[in-house]
Amino acid sequence: MGKSAILAALRSGRTTSSPVSPSAASTGSPSKKKESIQPHSELTSLKWLSANFSRSETTWELSKAAQAVAAIAVWRRGHVKGEKNTDHPILVTRQVEKWLKTRPAKGRPEIVPYSGPQTSQPFGLSIAAAALAETGNLVMHSSGDSPAAFQFLCDHHCVLLKRSRIYRYYEDYWRVMGKDAAHLRAINWICGPSRSADVEQTLQLGAHGPLSLHVIILEQ
Fold first, then answer.
1. Hey, what CATH topology would domain 38-219 get?
2. Where are the domains of the chain?
3. Could you give the CA distance from residue 62 to residue 184 in angstroms, rounded to a whole number?
4. In the prediction, which pLDDT does 139 show?
5. Helix, strand or coil for residue 63?
6. What span, in angstroms and rounded, lies between the C-alpha atoms of 16 and 12?
7. Which of 68, 97, 168, 178 has the least C-beta neighbours within 10 A?
8. Which secondary-structure segment (H or E) carries 6?
9. b/e for 22-55, b at 16 or more Cβ within 10 A?
10. What is the pLDDT of residue 185?
11. With DSSP H G I counted as helix, E B as strand and the rest as coil, what are the percentages for the chain, rounded to 5?
12. What letter would DSSP give residue 198?
C-alpha cells in the first residue's frame, strides 16, 4: 500500500474528511485541503500552530529578526521564573553560533558552543527547519552544525523559527523537501516539553528531554 493510500485510509476514520483549522472549527464545518502547497506565513496557519502549541504547553512569541537577540536574552532571564540558573550561558549549536555572528554584538547573550553531551547547560538555543500547523510540531534537521542529541540535553530549550517555514500539513513539508530529505542524517519531530508516564502512570516532566520549550517565531 502506497503512502497516499495509507493517508487516505487514516483520514477516512476521522470524524471529518480532513484536519480542521481553527476558523472551520468555530463554524462547525471542516476545512478543504488544497492540492497545491500552502506553507508559509498565512495568518490561519500561525493561529492553528499556536493553538496546538498551547495544547502541548509550548510557549511562543513573535519577534522581528532584528530584535531576536533581545528576545533570547529576555527568555533566559524571565521565561523560567524562580530558577537559580538564569545567569548560566546558553548552549548553542554551530548553526546558531553562525547566525549570532550576523547579529549586532550589543545585548548578545553569553553562549557556550555545543561540543558533545559533556557541554550540557540548563539553557539551549537551536534553529528549527520548519513547523507543522496541523499538529504543532517543530521539525529539526540533524546535521554536523545541528546534532540530534542537542534537542534532548537542556532543561529549557528555546527554538528559533522563521515564520515563512510554517506549513499547514505534513504533505506540504515533504513536497518542499523532495529528494533533499534523503541527504539528512535524521529528522526529529518535537511536539512540546518532555513527558513520560511509564512508571506507575505518574506524569514526569523532563525525563527524556527539556522541562520547557519556547519558540521565537521570526518575522521576515
1. Rossmann fold (3.40.50)
2. 38-219
3. 28
4. 95
5. strand
6. 8
7. 178
8. helix 3-12
9. eebeeeeebbebeeeebbbeeeebbebbbebbee
10. 83
11. 35, 25, 40
12. T
Helix (H) / strand (E) element for 90: namely strand 90-92
* Residue 212 CB burial class (10 angstroms; 0-12, 13-18, ≥19): buried
Instruction: Name the grid cell of 175.
Output: 513536497
- The residue whose grid cell reads 506553507 is 39
CB distance 37 to 176 below 8 Å:
yes
Please identify which residue in the block is written with the cell numbers 553569553.
Answer: 110
Low-confidence ranges of the chain (pLDDT < 50): 14-41
CA dist 191 and 181 (Å) reads 20
**Quick one: DSSP state of residue 9?**
H
Q: Compute the C-alpha angle 5/166/142, nearest 5°.
A: 80
Considering only CA atoms, give the Rg of the chain. Answer: 18
Tell me the HSE value of 212 on the side-chain side, using a 13 A CA sphere. Answer: 14
Asked if residue 93 lies in contact with residue 114, where contact means CB atoms within 8 angstroms, the answer is yes
